[in-house]
Fold this protein.
Amino acid sequence: MSVVAQSERAVVRARSERWAPVLATLLALVLVAAVAEIVLDGAVGHSPLIPKSPAIAGWLAGVGERLGYRVFLIALLASTGAYAGLLALCGIAGNADARGGAQRTGASPRGAISARAAIALVAALQLLVFAGPILISTDVFSYIAYARMGVEHGLNPYLHGPAAIVGDPVFRYVGQDWIHVATAYGPLYTLLSYPLAPLGVVGALWGMKLEALLASAGTLALTWRCARERGFDPPTAMLAVGANPLYVIYGLGGAHNDLIMMLAMMGAVSLTILGTPSGRREAGAAALVVAGALVKATVAVLLPFMILSRRRPAPILGALAAVALGALVGYLAFGIHGIDVVAALNRDAAFVSSDSFATELAHLVGKPGVFPVDHDLLKAALVLIVVHLLWRTWRGYDWIAASGWALLAISVTSTWLLAWYILWPLPLAVVSRDRRLLAATLAIQALFVAHQLSPLLAPAQ
Amino acid sequence: MNGTPTTATAGDARWERLPSWLRPRTSEARGTGQLRLVETTLLVLAGVLLAAATINDLHRQVGINHRLRADLATWRQYTGHTYHELTVDQELLGAGSEHEVVCGNASPGPPKARPQICLAIWGATVNGRRTVHGGWYLRANVEYDVFADRYGCFGAAGQGRCPP
């Protein structure tokens, strides 16, 4: 390389280092402003995007206006654009560092966004949403209803839907589609939710929000540590998860228990890649995956990849011990229905949502919707993908990436797709050695956001 | 898939009886990159297909929204009320038929607290309106539009839709 070319590159790098922090600050402000707009307008209530809820955010209600689709979608688009810009900036700075031969020591990339600024931004976004109303989904009220069924009414939430407690104060907040549906969540999650039941609906709601916030903080801390261990820039990895608009607005905004599942998932990943490898750590990691599956069954898909990559008895023994303990506790607490995960999965697999890619593909080929044969085709496709990933893992492919691909495939082939389902692979994607996984996960999320835009392009009212 | 340079196998005697292509590896062999190329091509093709499906569905939804907007405007013009709390049923007259039933209060009051007037609407959108082909009334305080709660059916679309 000529001296002239080298000096030109140095000039370009120096310029980009000057403007990158300014641009990053602007993008961070856009992200915070967009989320604040949704939270403050949502606090006013009476919005199709805010589920009927006790007035937990009334003190924020004086600032905003009723949240309509138009404002929500503009804010969602703005936050998505700012998030993409921030990631691009971090990527650019990271590449510049790599070219310059800078040490990757866990400090943020030079010129883009400092570790302290990244933490401040993510904390601001999470706390904003924590302080505000429940966004988009009524699921959290189903969680509270199941807990109150067990604790306050002596009913088994694996046998009855919330309709069994019509007189309970939480019933009026449960989504209409779910009032006859028994819980599909694992017994560990149900038991975790029980201590919140006696706190009343408002107390339990704050408890659920706090659980989601703490689970999110734990997931982000583990993502940071895993990224550092694998040679990625920790602030960028944490930003990619913690500032993700779907993660913040839909995941944390709805206080979804997927965040607890993801904490267990990242706990398992960190046990396998941090510290000195040992049989005890691998058994613990497998047990954590099982614990996550006893919150929400989907995460169990990590287990075969972990076991195949290790090829030692420790993770198998750890998983078996955790399954035995979980089954015993689940059986004692809820009877046989509390541990019949397959029945719950089969029931949910039959649901169809308008946001699922399966429905979109059906419309693309001129069908009115998804038919039973389509469910079978999608299951077959998923099996093929998982078998291919298992084979690749056997032959040395990064098991964390394989698990991420499997989770992404589950959400893409599911006929019942919700925004927080496409968050599952995200923490794995940012610490995986196959960067295609991160690109694919973000692309799927972008398509999901694009699919929400019709009220913006043609308001129905 | 990561192309990391690696040493050979798991180094475990248990697997030595297997042919080399079947033996487990602790890290991936640096191959010719063909598998990665095939995988990436399939991923790109899947991405293009999903993007096409998303754009097509977005276009379809925009079309539906335009039609629903015309339906609501038609209801307001027909009844002379400017209410916003209206419900639209897209399946009662056949899913995918583009025949809709729009219901709203026949007199001022909270949503569904008064008898409702329901209009069966279909046809082309002209000047932001579609054609009313008949309808019926619904008793007050009912959540769903069911046969037993209807009365005063009128027009071609109302024929046989009310209890005798």
Observations:
- Helices of chain B lie at 34-79, 155-158.
- The interface with chain A takes residues 1-2, 4, 6, 10, 12, 24-29, 39-40, 43, 47, 49-58, 60-66, 68-69, 72, 84, 95-96 of chain B (CB under 8 Å).
